[in-house]
Amino acid sequence: MAQTEKKGGLLRKSSASKKPLKEKVVLMYDEIFTTEDPSKCNPRFWEELFLMKVNLEYLEGKLEALDGEELMKIKDNINCLFQHCIQALGEEHPIRVVNALQTLCALIRGVHQKNKSTSGFDIINMLVGFDKAELCMKNLMESLDSLLCAEGSESLKSLCLKLLLCLVTVTDNISQNTILEYVMINSIFEAILQILSSPLSRREHGYDAVVLLALLVNYRKYESVNPYIVKLSIVDDEATLNGMGLVIAQALSEYNRQYKDKEEEHQSGFLSALTNMVGSMFIADADEKISVQTNEAILLALYEAVHLNRNFITVLAQSHPEMGLMTTPTSPIPMTPVTPLGTTPPSSDVISSAELPLDADVQTSNLLITFLKYSSIVMQDTKDEHRLHSGKLCLIILTCIAEDQYANAFLHDDNMNFRVNLHRMPMRHRKKAADKNLPCRPLVCAVLDLMVEFIVTHMMKEFPMDLYVRCIQIVHKLLCYQKKCRVRLHYTWRELWSALINLLKFLMSNETVLLAKHNIFTLALMVVNLFNMFITYGDTFLPTPSSYDELYYEIIRMHQNFDNLYSMVLRLSTNAGQWKEPASKVTHALVNIRAIINHFNPKIESYAAVNHISQLSEDQVLEVVRSNYDTLTLKLQDGLDQYERYSEQHKEAAFFKELVRSISINVRKNLAFNTLSQELLLKEFSTIS
């Protein structure tokens, strides 16, 4: 008997016979693509269709091959197919439900692909018909809701979520996807929450559920009342919120693990040996090759949860075992193509390990620590557009956290100490920090470390001004909390002061280049006011009196930088150019720093002369400082502990619109044919009762 080959819905004998034979399902599709009603000749046509294995590729290809006019001619049959798919979702036989779900995916994508230029209303008409749209879409959403909430097949639930993701992402700009109006009216929010609150469902479908929710929240969020925003903002069920946190933590943890693996692989390779041999001149170039695709979809979900739901803040500090240290079952991993933006969900095996009971020997972690580690990786390289967007979103999330009273309470809690191993960019002038020597400290120290790390490592030609501004704002908001609550944080403040002074030095050295693109005085003013905050209120939140003395020592030691800054802003504020006003603000802000320098420098010079010392030690300078505080006069500056609260709609709408577009495109790309494959489903439903 001749062997049979299959391709694109055609069956061809490998013998001499050249005439191809079509699969029965393909023949049935061809009948739908005529102007005649296919059930006229065969009353059982629709019943039989959903018993056939779906040929997604053929059906989508057929739809895409038609022009608009041809599509309109078969509109009645397309409407009929769509309606029968919805009816089949209520069938008892799971095979029919599976085939109906997959057919809906193909229909929605195929029609949208063909009608990219037309309005959403035309798409609705083409799929379901205006007259029946409301009822059909209501029935569809109710069927999907029932399947998601039922205790039945996990494969069916997976396919329902895939269909919903398909529905949401068929347009690049989800706010132009008018079909989503029906998803707003017939909410599946409770079904998503149920998935997140159940450990079994969460392991299987948590990732898709969280990404779906993040996208639905962004549908026309600035133009109308989005019920998903309203409902997400008031969720207070602990199991649901923790479930959402676990899914996000796992996805970020998976990214961190992949990066660490690549880093270790990279360091043990030939290039690393060569770098060690010739010195560190190539280290920056070498490190660029360590790249793992970022995951904006899951980061967006974290942002929406933190931004919209005050109760979710508690989830950030919820302890779980360090996911990177957990041993996972060594089962064979199927080879799948690497997908952009990390939108592929992590393996369910790894997710389940995150929910194991705590072990005394395992380092505990939480969502915030995992997020800080993730941020430390993506913020290293901001030249890549996706990493730049990820870095910006990380800083926006940290901004929301830094403004939250409860978040600040656990960030600064002395009883919640963690060892947070942030990734540091390899640099020629510093050694790689040993992970084992990290102290256990309150979590706010890790946030400050991350900010210092960013400040130190991004002084470059393509200066990320926006990220620097956000970075300084986060530090300022944390200081405002410390001042308000009189929290004396034991932190190496000198590292922050040094980083800030070096930033000012960089701005001055590159004045001409940077002024062509940025208003550097906004950033300079923020940095100077951070020093003013320490000078004016430092005695209320610095850990010891000697810390305050060290602040003065650093200002005096680096006085040349402040002198140069004053000369620069004075020059520009006395000219009638565009920078007159912003430069003059910096001039006024420097008054106390200049008073400190002008007061102590003569005293130090006098001390050196009297004691015949050419160069004073740090202790000697500190002695002079302590002895001369009484005669120092400083001006009281208003508003140093005030800040403008974060507002998404007024300042970030354009950023989020572009980000959601990028996520929508990539989620759609990842809903490839292989993810909708029937093989596993058919194995599960191998018998029809």
TrEMBL record:
UniProt xrefs under SUPFAM superfamilies: ARM repeat
Pfam family, one: ARMH3_C
Armadillo-like helical domain segment(s): 435-671
Subcellular location: Membrane
Segments passing through the bilayer: none
Keywords: Membrane, Transmembrane, Transmembrane helix
One term under GO cellular component: membrane
InterPro entries with a match to the protein in the record: ARM-type_fold, ARMD3-like, ARMH3_C
Transmembrane helix keyword on record: yes
Protein name (record): ARMD3 protein
